[in-house]
Design goal:
Layout (H helix, E strand, L loop, with lengths): L1 E3 L4 E7 L2 E8 L12 E2 L15 E6 L6 E3 L17 E4 L10 E6 L7 E4 L7 E3 L2 E3 L2 E7 L6 E4 L26
Antiparallel strand pairs: 1-4, 1-6, 2-3, 2-5, 7-13, 8-12, 9-10, 9-13, 11-12
């Protein structure tokens, strides 16, 4: 989060309509060589028994010229490993350990699923898995955090929708934001 304001301003952060924090951000000066805005980065741990988490972020300006910005929200969730939809990515930070070999078991699976190790995005590796009683299981060395993707024949893929006009990305004119 980032705020540009000559007075203190704040962000209200909620998850599932429960207040996590009201984050007050310092003001910036209005001199010629002052920083433009103040940055605030927050981490939260929440526990939920719901399948979906509703995140609400509201900027509370302190004056009419105040502006609040959000770069991104990153949600890392731990849940039961159960195949849903046509593809899903997963990883388990708790599996990391020196010389560690971890067992991953996925429920609601079918024999036509494929699993790739996508830890190195430019070099995905097919993973051999066992399928028994609607469960897919495999082992992997987890000296480092491994990321996997599992998918069926209906996986997401890019589609050609048409040609794009030539764009002069290096033009001298300023960007219109």
């Amino acid at each position: 989060m980032l705020a540009h304001s000559t007075l203190k301003s704040s962000f209200t952060i909620k998850a599932n309509n429960e207040l996590l924090k009201i984050d007050t951000i310092s003001f910036v000066g209005n001199g010629e060589h002052q920083e433009y805005a103040k940055i605030s980065e927050k981490n939260f741990t929440i526990f939920s028994d719901k399948d979906k988490i509703n995140i609400n972020l509201k900027y509370n300006p302190s004056s009419s010229g105040s502006e609040g910005y959000l770069d991104f929200i990153l949600v890392q969730a731990k849940r039961h490993l159960k195949f849903e939809n046509n593809q899903m990515k997963f990883r388990n930070i708790e599996s990391i350990g020196e010389n560690e070999i971890s067992l991953f078991e996925m429920e609601n699976a079918s024999q036509n699923l494929k699993i790739w190790d996508i830890t190195d995005k430019k070099n995905p590796k097919n993973i051999a898995a066992n399928f028994i009683n609607n469960k897919l299981s495999f082992k992997s060395r987890t000296d480092i955090l491994k990321e996997f993707i599992v998918f069926n024949e209906n996986y997401l893929s890019p589609k050609i929708i048409g040609e794009i006009e030539n764009q002069n990305l290096h033009s001298d004119s300023g960007a219109s934001l």
